[in-house]
Amino acid sequence: MRWSGQQLGVESDSALPGLARLNNLVRSVQTPEFAGITFHEVLAKSALNKVPGQSMMPFGYTINPYRGCSHACTYCFARPTHTYLDLDAGHDFDSQIIVKVNVAEVLARELKKPSWGGNAVALGTNTDPYQRAEGRYKLMPGIIEALAGSGTPFSILTKGTLLRRDLPLLAEAARAVPVDLAMSIAVYDDELQQSVEPGTPTAKARLATVSAVREAGLDCSVFMMPILPYLTDTTTHLDTALAQIKAAGATSVLYTALHLRPGVKPWFMQWLAREHPELVESYRKMYFGATSYAPKEYRKWLAARIRPLIARHGLTRGEEDPVTGGVRSTALAAGGSPRSSTPQFDFGVAAEVGPEAWPNTAPRAGPRAGTARAAREAELARERGRGHPQADEATLF
């Protein structure tokens, strides 16, 4: 990669106004290998991020080596975090990547402080630590070594197959501290996956990474998050996904429905209008106004559909950390820390609701170009005919 031609302290046209105000900006880098992406290298002042808990929950700690993410997932809940530097939550989040080049060194210093209590630390709960840039910057090995060397348990959630590079180091770390790994794989239809999360490795490549983690002697959960209403919530898609997850050797699976925070919703809806215009009105009803979560009725319906499939495939439902949103650290479970009484956003599922229970008024989607897409939409049409839980606003709210 042609990084050597970039000189420190030289102003770049690609250093946007908000970034120019930073006193810790080292340089902005562009390279043909990452066409359309600019990396803004900064000197981090801190590495550990303290996340306040809710109610009786303890504090959590996270590390974010990068801000922004070239995975470009249209639904990514972290998009609004980019606006703090006058960058937008859409294209800038995908293409203007902040790199904390000294994060491992800063972390090592913080972990040596007498005040550090050895709390579990989560990575990948905001932006992905194994996005493509990690292949160049190699920040994670230093972070892993610092955490393990200080006796700090940690977890990693990623979509990046680059995780395989660090498996020997992670296996070594696991002999010293609890290490929890999870791979995020939400979409198992290749055409849809490349449309909705165009910068990510294929589901097949990520499943192979799950198998590699298991072969290295480590547990690995799979996050089926988010499940997209009308797109990935059919019985066929869920059953196919869980079969592949089981075959890959995953130790548990977690799921939740799509969550559209303010700042994320416009970007996702723009994608939906372009790729699936027939679903726009249905999504507007489900996520109307400032609503971020799928309706309670939908979450009940989804739980009633997917839980029997999880059991049929012999999979265990994993546990999400209630504070950080990552995979729950086994260190927390061993220590008897308080657990969330509200698992994974599908509130109220104790009152089981049959998958046929809710009326549907969403428009049927006609077949579109592409065999896989046409097959998926035919399945969606059948699902709607059997009663997908999308009704009018008076019914849902």
Main attributes?
alpha/beta; 7-stranded mixed β-sheet; 397 residues; pyruvate-formate lyase- activating enzyme; globular; single chain; 4-stranded mixed β-sheet; disordered C terminus
Fraction of residues in helix:
25-40%
Low-confidence stretches: 1-15, 336-371, 390-397
- Per CATH, which architecture? Alpha-Beta Horseshoe
Number of strands: 11
How would you describe the overall organization of this protein?
The chain has a single domain (104-337, 344-396), classed as pyruvate-formate lyase- activating enzyme. It is 34% helix and 13% strand. The chain has helices at 17-20, 91-95, 103-111, 134-137, 140-149, 167-173, 190-196, 203-215, 235-248, 265-275, 280-286, 296-312, 330-334, 371-386, 393-396, and strands spanning 25-29, 38-42, 48-51, 60-63, 66-67, 96-100, 121-123, 154-158, 179-184, 220-227, 252-257.
In short:
The chain has 397 residues and is of the alpha/beta class. 34% of the residues lie in helices and 13% in strands.
Question: What's the helix and strand layout?
Answer:
Layout: H1 17-20, E1 25-29, E2 38-42, E3 48-51, E4 60-63, E5 66-67, H2 91-95, E6 96-100, H3 103-111, E7 121-123, H4 134-137, H5 140-149, E8 154-158, H6 167-173, E9 179-184, H7 190-196, H8 203-215, E10 220-227, H9 235-248, E11 252-257, H10 265-275, H11 280-286, H12 296-312, H13 330-334, H14 371-386, H15 393-396
Parallel strand pairs: 2-6, 4-7, 7-8, 8-9, 9-10, 10-11
Antiparallel strand pairs: 1-2, 3-4, 5-6
Helix pairs in contact: 3-5, 9-12
